[in-house]
Amino acid sequence: MKAAVLKDIGEVDVTDVPFPKIEADEVLIRVAVAGICGSDVHGFSTGLYEPGIVMGHEFSGTVADVGKEALKFKKGDRVTSNPVLACGKCSFCKAGKFNLCDDMGTIGITHPGAFAEFIKVPEQNVVAIGHTDFEKAAFCEPLSVVVHACEKSGIHPAEKCLVIGGGTIGNLLTRVLKLKGVEQVVLSEPDDFRRKIAQKYADAVLNPFETDPMDFCEKEFGQLPDVVFECVGLPATIQEAVQDVIKGGRVIILGVSTESVEMDFLDMMYNEKAIQSVFSCTHEFMEAADLIRSGAINPLDLATSRIALSEISGKGFKKLTGENHEIKILVNRFV
Ligand SMILES: [Zn+2]
Ligand SMILES: [Zn+2]
Predict the structure, then answer these.
(1) Which of 13, 52, 56, 87 sits most deeply, having the most CB atoms within 10 A of its CB?
(2) One domain for residues 170 and 130
(3) Which ligand number lies closest to the CA of residue 169?
(4) pLDDT at 58 (0 to 100)
């Protein structure tokens, strides 16, 4: 079968790979839609992932076969999957912190992913989507990260929020914050198109290249933000997030940075600023799937391009590493 294999930094080849053989507790899925994640772009451009891997952890598809013990699903079922592969035995798993498992794997990072015609997944990771559109269902994974971040942030409705970054994560986060009743959410994003999309849900948007986020928040909120969500992953935006937050406030980091980030420690210390990073999700995948299935969150306006697997290098990864107005690129043809 065809799959996109990470060869080296900046190089992905669409090539023939062996057909996946399922174990008794696994489900074989014919991939219908697979989204390219910001972390895949890091994997492509910085060496964050090991070469040889088939990336792709945001996907949906149809059950093509089931193992002897995987009886919850049958051929033809429409599904998505949580990519977190947890051991279920370590102290973190026992505490429900599957994303911190001592022996954690991730589909599309440590195990073969969804930029392929077929993928095999443990039955316990598979989630039914019913009649939900495959494209919408491919957003369950990024949405689960956002729901997890909201939970970790301990946000309550009266708190003023600043979201830095209007990509898939920043945009989904804004929607979830509003859905959870947060009264005031401002989003900062330099790209006009991304800002226009964010405007539909955020209470206000700003271009950080034109307007100082601290001044903007002071005007909009009458104070600095109580919680700043960093959804970019650049050293400059992480520093910005810590600088912008109010005394005693929280900075929640969702963006992935492979570079070290210098911090003004005294500013954090004297002003009791807290930093909480968030990674992947735990039980929130089900909540995210519910939000998509019920239509409470509709992510389709974030899908800016649809490509074939054979185009994944040029029209996918290379495009996403350069200047572009893309938000989410979906692979929806696998021939
Ligand atoms: Zn992702
Ligand atoms: Zn574990």
Answers:
(1) 56
(2) no
(3) 1
(4) 98
Q: Which residues of the chain have pLDDT under 50?
A: none
With tokens 């942030």, the residue in question is: 153
Which ligand gives the minimal distance to the CA of 140?
Answer: 1
Answer yes or no: are the C-beta atoms of 288 and 147 closer than 8 Å: yes
- Nearest ligand to the CA atom of 107: 1
Q: Do 244 and 167 share a domain, yes or no?
A: yes
Specify which residues 184 forms β-bridges with.
Answer: 160
- The answer to the question of residue 105 being in a domain is yes
The alpha carbon of 39 and the centre of ligand 1 are apart by a number of angstroms equal to: 6
pLDDT of residue 308: 97
If you measure from the C-alpha of residue 220 to the centroid of ligand 1, how many angstroms do you get, rounded to a whole number? 31
User: How would you label 305-335 residue by residue, b for 16+ Cβ within 10 Å and e otherwise?
Assistant: bebebebbbebbbbbbeeeeebbbbbbbebe
Structure tokens at 199: 């405007």
For helices 235-244 and 213-221, give the axis angle rounded to 10 degrees.
40
288 in any annotated domain:
no
Q: How far does the centroid of ligand 2 lie from the alpha carbon of residue 240, in Å?
A: 34
Decide if 286 is inside a domain.
Answer: no
pLDDT value of residue 191: 95
- DSSP of 26-44, one letter per residue? EEEEEEEEEEPPHHHHHHH
Q: What spacing in Å lies between the alpha carbon of 284 and ligand 2's midpoint?
A: 17
Distance 100 CA to ligand 2 centre (A): 7
The pLDDT assigned to 158 comes to: 97
What distance in angstroms lies between residue 46's CA and the mean position of ligand 2's atoms? 28
In a domain, 289, yes or no: no
Which one, of 85, 37, 34, 40, lies nearest residue 60 by Cα? 34
**d(Cα 323, Cα 191) in Å, to the nearest integer?**
10
Q: Are 157 and 175 in contact (CB under 8 A)?
A: no
Q: In terms of Cα–Cα distance, which of 108, 144, 146 is closest to 31?
A: 108
166 and 45 co-located in one domain: no
Cβ atoms < 10 Å from Cβ of 119: 28
Q: Are strands 227-230 and 250-253 parallel, antiparallel or unpaired?
A: parallel
